[in-house]
Amino acid sequence: MALLVNLRHLEEDSRQETGELTGEELGIAGLDELIKTPLPLKYDLEISLMDNALLAQGSFELTLKCECSRCLKPFDFPIREEAWACHLPLSGEDAVPVDNDCVDLTPYIREHMLLELPQRPVCGDDCKGWKKPASMSSSDSSVEATEDAPSPWAALDKLKLD
Predict the structure, then answer these.
(1) Contacts for 142-148 with beta carbons within 8 Å, 24 or more apart?
(2) Up-side HSE of residue 153: CA atoms within 13 Å toward CB?
């Protein structure tokens, strides 16, 4: 369900909207295999009309379930916005779409959330990455084959561009 705001309800006074949106409703679920959205985004917004524009301001929070891109350990990545504000004109060339006197705020929250998603989730600044298990010995032939293989850049090192 989208976050729809009825403009007729705002003609007399601003409204307080609280609720939840799932990752599927926001359109951010499944964007990255290392980032999952099993928990909903919780929002608390005050929405008002201002001089032929809609003003939404408030807070929201979402906890992502991530896998570290270095060591593949699971960790939580909280996103909290305490002072979010969005000014949406209702007329002019930048006017937001109005359908049956309702404006959908979901795309604007989605845009903000996409900017907050980690590009490469890392469990911590001190993460050293994946460690080779002790059960893998250096006599393993598959490991030796990759270590003894020539560098793919070796051919470029011989290239002379004079």
Answers:
(1) none
(2) 1
Tens digits of per-residue pLDDT, 46-79?
A: 999 988 899 999 999 999 999 999 999 999 999 9
- Residue 66 confidence (pLDDT): 94
Separation between Cα atoms, residue 161 and residue 64, nearest integer Å: 49
Q: In sequence order, what are the beta bridge partners of 34?
A: none
- Using DSSP, state whether 105 is helix, strand or coil: coil
Mean pLDDT score across all residues of the chain = 86
Q: Which domain holds residue 16?
A: 4-116
pLDDT at 156: 82
Residue 121 lies in a domain: no
Domain-embedded: residue 145? no
Amino acid at 34: L
What does pTM read for this prediction? 0.73
* Contact in structure between 41 and 62 (CB atoms under 8 Å): yes
Cα dihedral across residues 111, 112, 113, 115: positive or negative: positive
User: What integer pLDDT is reported at residue 146 of this predicted model?
Assistant: 52
In-domain check, residue 16: yes
Which residue reads 């007329």 in tokens? 91
In a domain, 102, yes or no: yes
* Number of domains observed in the structure of the chain: 1
